[in-house]
């Protein structure tokens, strides 16, 4: 019932990480949590409505294309227009937002595949977060094709992913290994395992006051994510340290194991957001519809927040800036624009695709 709220919460963390000063790795926590949600949901549909062998797998792929690409193409075209309108501002806000200078540079803009390679992120990305979509699409295929289809395979995958995560936690470099197809495996695998063990989890939650416990889980999640921020604000505003000095003082926030440790927090919030709640009155149905709409908003918010920031900055005469040099007033002005455009994408792009996607599900 609350899954949509959880997804919107994660999208808000990504926007916060990119729009405002932050000492920790807010965006990285959110992305690894999105991976966990995807691991659960893709395993659920694979083992449910798309379980019919090759036919089900093919229908799954078609449905995923219809789910991911329309909004992505709309966001890419919007971003290209923004880049052409204000190329200097775009380049200062995100070094990836520029027109590619080769055919191979154009391919990831439409395909998503190629936005991330073993060598790193593509040089040009109209939608700078497209690299994480590339990771998601790879795991969609792996989960639907093999990894999520049986508990035995999923369990073996989870243990292997845990071993890899422990290695990254000890030896990983957050600036290099975060942008990887391998390090997020523990998030996807945990989501898949949660689906296979959902019965046990929901039985354990039976009788619990789910709304309050869910809010409590988000509060714990937020404390884990934001604990460096008040310390950083104190060191910056009261002690007079520069942002670079603050980040050096709080060096532990760049430990890769902290990013990996978000997995249990995300797992708890996800399962509480999915837990059955007693009663089915009109009020609960309205709440469920609102939650679903919030979940729908999360994807276009994720896609659009960079190009919207560029557009708002350019329209109001800003020059842009990267990281600590960003002009934060334009971040504030961009927030309602992101929400409004995201709602339009849901209503004008994603909702019209719902009928086609329903036919694909029936064909499976």
Return the domain count: 1
Structural class: mainly alpha
Shape: globular
* Strand order in the largest sheet: 1-2
List the helices and strands and how they pair.
Blueprint (H helix, E strand, L loop, with lengths): L2 H17 L6 H22 L5 H33 L1 H7 L9 H9 L4 E2 L2 E2 L8 H18 L3 H21 L2 H4 L7 H12 L1 H7 L5 H17 L1 H10 L5 H7 L6 H5 L1 H13 L7 H34 L12 H36 L1
Antiparallel strand pairs: 1-2
Helix pairs in contact: 1-2, 1-15, 1-16, 2-6, 2-9, 2-15, 3-4, 3-6, 3-16, 3-17, 7-9, 11-15, 16-17
Q: Could you give a quick summary of the protein structure above?
A:
With 364 residues, the chain is mainly alpha-helical. It contains 17 helices and two strands. Strand 1 and strand 2 form a beta hairpin.
Give structural notes.
The protein contains 17 helices and 2 strands. By secondary structure, the chain is mainly α. The chain has one domain. A two-stranded antiparallel ribbon has the order 1-2. Strand 1 and strand 2 (120-121) form a beta hairpin. The two termini are 26 Å apart. The mean pLDDT is 91.
